[in-house]
Write a structure and sequence with these properties.
Radius of gyration: 20 Å
Distance between the termini: 41 Å
Strand content: 5-15%
CATH superfamily of the largest domain: Aldolase class I
CATH topology of the largest domain: TIM Barrel
Oligomer: single chain
Largest sheet: 8 strands, parallel
Order of helices and strands: EEEHEHEHEHHEHEHEHEHHHHH
Length: about 325
Amino acid sequence: MIKLGGIELDVPFYQAPLSGYSEAPMRMLARRYGCPLTFTGVLLDKIALHPKAIRSLKFQPGDDEHPVGVQLLGEDPATMAAAAAAFEKVGYDIVDLNFACPVPKVVRRMRGGYLLTRPQVIIETLRRTREALTCPLSMKVRIGFDGKAESRDEFRGLCEQIAAEGVDMLTIHGRTVSEKYRGKADWEAIAEIKRAHPHLTVFGSGDLMDPETIVERLETTGVSGVAVARGAIGNPWIFAETRALLEGRPKPAQPTLYEQGLVMLEHFEMIGQLRPERQAAPFFRKFVTGYCKRHPQRKKAQMAIIAAKTRQQLVAEITEWFQVR
């Protein structure tokens, strides 16, 4: 059991915030298949300062998806703290501060991973946000801004300060900001921080694409838990499979094509409840590759579904390829 303030996780994993993916439909399916905690995609802190925007349905947590967290991106400590308080008031159970995003336009605007070059801003944001909240506070960082020794030393120093200040959870992605998602995540760098600060709740992130790898990372690194990101796109079953392995049970049988098709259709219909019909199909297409990975004719099914232009065409292709009758 892992405690994050008042939140208890019965298994050591959660679904990571995924910009452009982890809206309510993806979160709801993850919870159904055994994920104990999910997050929104990253949200710009200034959204919370606009009452009309924050009341939008897509920014509201569902009544039946708690605990659920919100991840914030920004550059000003005071604004980040105010946004965190606003999102807690909306109903989110935990706030996560993003100091890891490597997207060039984010870095250029001195947000996300850029702030690893300004650790004093990160610590000030931590202090101000903690004072503004009553719910748990977590943070996400990377193992440095770039591969230089000075950057790695700054990362270690930052983690030492975070451990001293206190935070409910620190998630570390095992790549530098400049690496983006190239190469392999450095899990030894994550494990090093946990060994140095055993009292700190450290979750690792990076290259967790299947349940066997998740279990292996948990067993060999000593981290408190892991954040499952890209491995969960179009694959909510990863949580049930990982839970089974951690509990010493056999991995569940592969979902049938029929079950996969039903989940895909449900996911698509939930998206349609949040977005105009003209946007629902294009938004859903980015999940299709993940959903089709288990299909025996993966490439053909994927191409046919992605090619669908309208709601009716997309539903028809899923129904045909996944034998939903």
